[in-house]
Amino acid sequence: MEYKDETTSISGSWNLGQWHWKHETAVLMQHFLASLKDKKVLGLKCPECGLVYCPPKPYCSCLSIPEEWVEISDEGVVTTFTFSGSWSYGGMEEGAGTPRIIVGVMLDGSNTEMLSQLEDADRDHVDVGMRVKVKWADEPQGTIEDVMHSLPA
Ligand SMILES: [Zn+2]
């Protein structure tokens, strides 16, 4: 990929009020989450450019509407990572002081990333390009939690 150290600006406006989306994000997510109960990861493929979105997205960066569900792998590569010592959200706090490895993962067959907590890994050996796999629960519940944890592959 060629890197350009310049910015291009195009003046104008788009009337997005004329657009009618065929899919609602909530409907797409329901289908995506339901497949997780069977330990299947689905992506949504764009008919125009072929990009596969996982998690699904109701529109593509080429402005077409992804419509084809495709099964993708539960293994992929780390695209980015960071380390966290604790987290709190909405009054909840978990494991303060517990080291965590948070990774961006692009599953094989997808062109987009998901966030995941990498487990059973040595933080000194985590790197971009590292192979990982989804850590499935024995009985997935059909929630995003089903794919929020990963293991080295
Ligand atoms: Zn597209």
UniProtKB/TrEMBL annotation:
Residue ranges of the TM segments: none
Domain ChsH2 C-terminal OB-fold: from-to ranges: 69-136
Pfam families reported in the protein's UniProt record: OB_ChsH2_C
SUPFAM superfamilies according to UniProt: Nucleic acid-binding proteins
Name used for this protein in its record: ChsH2 C-terminal OB-fold domain-containing protein
Gene source species: Candidatus Solincola sediminis
